[in-house]
Design goal:
By secondary structure, this protein is mainly α. Helix content is 44%, strand content 0%.
Amino acid sequence: PAHLRRVLNKHPELPQGEGAGNAKRFSLEEILTLRNHFAEEGVSTKEYRPYRPKGLPAKVVAVANFKGGVGKTSTAAHLAMSAALDG
């Protein structure tokens, strides 16, 4: 988060996100713009534009448990975030 704030301060032409303080929200288009910027300007050993090869089907993941209040929603949200970051 601190690195992203430094980059956004240095490059005002990049999407700045919406929200107050450190809680910024970005649209998908803004995230893709930021990923492209980091792919060109960032560390060469990191992959900033993850992708799914053409023709490879999407994955389907189900989270289930027979008891209520055991973290299904939290687990599903974290899986979704991780999948989004992985591309």
